[in-house]
Amino acid sequence: MELVVFILASVMVVAGAVGVIVRSQPVHAALSLVLTLFGVAVHFVALGAHFLAAVQVIVYAGAIVVLFLFVIMLLGVDKSEDLSIEPFPIQRPVAVAVGAAVAGLVIAAVVRARDTISEGVPLRADDDENVRALARNLFQDHVFAFEFTSILLIVAIAGTVLLTRKEHRKVDP
Amino acid sequence: MSASILGAVVPTTTYYLILGAVLFGIGATGLMVRRNPLIMFMCVELMLNAVNLTFVALAVRFGNIDGQTAVFFVMVVAAAEVVVGLGIIISILKRRPGVTADDLAELKG
ipTM score here? Predict the structure, then answer.
């Protein structure tokens, strides 16, 4: 049963990821991204990371993808782009080769190290214990990092407002 | 593969790590292939998710919650990064509609 869940979620993840890079319309790519993010959320649930699964759906699939769609609609770039135009012909095969090489090297390392990582079943915490343990870890061991993220978010908001505001020209008297 | 075998085999941590590697490879490929800055941004998100999946798989495997806390921070930083990045993309695309990453090789407005 767990393997079935794993396979289905993995198909979602990989199909969505491939959809992001082959779809010519940005809106379709954004919706494929939602598929991938939901697949990752399913994996999080299967691994027992319930809080992160909820955050994944709310923040990633909710906020971030909606932000992407807002920008696509706002800028009117929802036209299909012609993917057959390739100004630098060798780039695409080289890029695919490099991407496959990166994935292949990591997979080779993981498969070689599978005895160290251990083929055992992943440990699974209780349902409530995950949120509790995460909260304890976050607000005791990493409380300063947590507070600094609020500064990061403030700076990000201020920077975005500054970047996207309309320039008001000063009228010289 | 019969249903009984499917039921008996339980996905191990290695499976999740391999999936993370594949997802990272797809994201990296997309980042190199595509020229639309928005799509390139989505590919960055794919790679971040691959790393998140790896983090959670290993955190669960070794029973150490620190990995999940790291994923939480990655998500916060990713949200901030998307906000700033999309702000930059909006300000560029408002000035020059339909621009691709190739046209932005020089730092000028």
Answer: 0.87
